[in-house]
Each structure stands twice: as structure tokens, then as C-alpha cells.
Amino acid sequence: MKITVTRDVFRLAQVFTISRGSRTEAQVLTVKVERNGVTGWGECVPYARYNETLDSVTAEIESLPSEFTRLELQSLLPAGAARNAVDCALWDWEAKNAGKPVWELAGLPEPHPEITAYTLSLDTPENMQKQAAENANRPLLKIKLGTPDDIARLEAVRTGAPNATIIVDANEGWSAEVYTDLAPHLVRLGVTLVEQPLPAGEDDALLGMERPVPVCADESCHDRNGLEKLKGKYDVINIKLDKTGGLTEALELRKKAFEMGFDVMVGCMVGSSLAMAPAVLVAQGVSVTDLDGPLLLAEDRKDALTFDNSGVHPPRAALWG
Which of 77, 219, 300, 315 is the most buried (most CB within 10 A)? Predict the structure, then answer.
């Protein structure tokens, strides 16, 4: 088996800002797995929040032995970006080798389009209102917050998009006191979900706290091993393949989360259609789909995912799976 890792850069359509900083491009790693004349591929986005860099993730992938199976991979690498790209490449390889789509190999129902959130970058209230108005036709808007001026921003977005469903992502930017103060306003403005309001290391404060709007674990949830400690704190978990370490664990995490009574959101880092393609399978029938990464790009992969009024469509075989 031959594994190759390359770096790709995709320009963003506009500056993308969250509470932790801004970016103008998406830097990703593309992994190709070749065996018996068949090549599968996958993509990951190393994330500094989890102490990942392009170099460190590349080194993890290059440390793998010359031969292993997808199931053996789960113990060869920890959950994270490196395992994600290799895992998804192996799924793609298996599908091409078998002449069957990944959803069939995984025993899943045939996938259909899913309505996806569209993310508004953190900005001044005036600019966020403008962003909201320009995207008011979209059924689901996600707002990046996590600053002292969040109510003004939220009010502005609601004015710009009076009929859209709104979810918010604080990216660990609030304290328990700030969340408690903001909660009534979130209800008033029709927010339906709050993603990761508190830092992951401080989310014990959510235990016993009234949650008038469902709270979703993002940075606090990576794989199945962490689900038990989320009980009583969160109502929803956000599954991202770069956190779970690939489609294999993502499907298992989704299954266990449902069994434990959590609702599920499927999200993404800012990457290309190749990164979103396997996540579309995980997103089938979940409460919230947030796979808008390609919509934020100025350029994308060949045979990119289709986004229309029905949502994000499953990938074509020419792209992945």
C-alpha cells in the first residue's frame, strides 16, 4: 500500500472570522491511498485548537506501517485529523475496489440531500446584518459569536433575516454568567441551538443549569469515549470527522449518541467538498447539518458537491465514495 500526503490551499470567498481569529484561506492535507492499482483519497484540516499543524499531521500519517486495514487504523492513530484523512481514503478505496458506494458498504440507507446551515462570519453588527440580508433566503443561518457585543450582533442578524432559523456558535467564548445572561435574549430572538458556549475545560458549569435553548457540545466532544461525561451538560453533540478521526468512528459515535438520548449535529472545518463528502453520509436524518465549508470557498475540488434549495447533495462517485 502506498500513501501520499500533499498540501492544498483553497482561497476563501471572504475573510472568515471566529472568536479565536481570522483566515483568508483553507489549508488542507490531501491523502491518497493506492493498492492493487486502485486509489482512494480523503482530506483533513489540521486544527491548532487541538495542537495540530500541517507538519505534525503529515508526520503522523507518514509514521503508519506499510500495510494495515481500515479497522486496524483505528488503533494505529488517535482520533484527529490524521486518522480522518486516511480513514476516508480507505473507505473511498474500498468503494472503488468493490464497485459499490460507501453507503452500501457501511450498511446505510441510500443518502439524500440535507439542508445545511450557512455560517455568517463574526463582524460588526452592521456588517453581520448585511451578511444576513444577503443570505436571508437560506433556511438555516449559523452565527459566529463569543464577544462582549453579541446581543447587538444577534439583533442585527435577526433584522437582516427575519424568517431564517438561527443557530449560534460561541466557540468557547462565553462564561457561565454570560451564557445565563444571554439565554433569555436567545429565546426572544428565536435561536434554536447554542454551540459550545463555555470552554471545554469549564463546561461542568452546565450541570444543573437551565438550558432554555438546546446546548451542543463541539470542542467538548470528539469520539465515543467522551460521551458519558457530557450527560447532563449538553443536549446535542456535534460530530466532525476531523475530531472523530474519520467516518468509521463518526458512524459509531452517532449510533451511541442516539442510544444515549443526545440529538446530533454534523459539522465541519473549513475545507473542500472532498472533506464534506463522507460527512454527508453521517448527516442523514440528524437534527442539524452544518456542512457549508465549500460555500465559504472561492474555489473547490473538481466534481464538487452540489448545493441547492434541497441542501447539500451526496457526493458523486467521481469525487468520493
Answer: 315
In degrees, to the nearest 5, what angle opens at C-alpha 30 toward C-alphas 24 and 32?
A: 170
As a three-state string, the secondary structure of 173-227 is CCCHHHHHHHHHHHHHCCEEEEECCCCHHHHHHHCCCCCCCCEEECCCCCCHHHC
Length of the chain equals 321
The amino acid occupying position 104 is E
User: From residue 68, how far is each of 3, 17, 65, 75, 276 by CA, in Å?
Assistant: 11, 39, 7, 11, 25
Question: CB of 53 within 8 A of CB of 80?
Answer: no
For residue 14, give the H/E element and its range: strand 2-18
- Pairing of the two strands 307-308 and 311-312: antiparallel
As given in the structure block, the three cell numbers for residue 259 are: 442510544
Q: Calculate Rg over the CA atoms of the chain.
A: 19
Look at the block and give the residue holding cell 452500501: 104
Residue 258 CA to residue 66 CA, distance in Å, equals: 36
Q: How far apart are CA 303 and CA 132, in angstroms?
A: 29
* pLDDT (tens digit per residue) in 136-180: 999 999 998 887 789 999 999 999 999 999 999 998 999 999 999
What is the C-alpha to C-alpha distance for residues 103 and 282, in angstroms, rounded to an integer?
Answer: 10
Cβ neighbors of 242 (< 8 A, separation 6 or more) are 44, 45, 47, 80, 81, 84, 268, 269, 275
Q: Which amino acid is at 262?
A: F
Cβ(181)–Cβ(150) below 8 Å:
no
> Is the CA virtual torsion 55, 57, 58, 62 positive or negative?
positive
Verdict on whether the full-model pTM lies above 0.90: yes
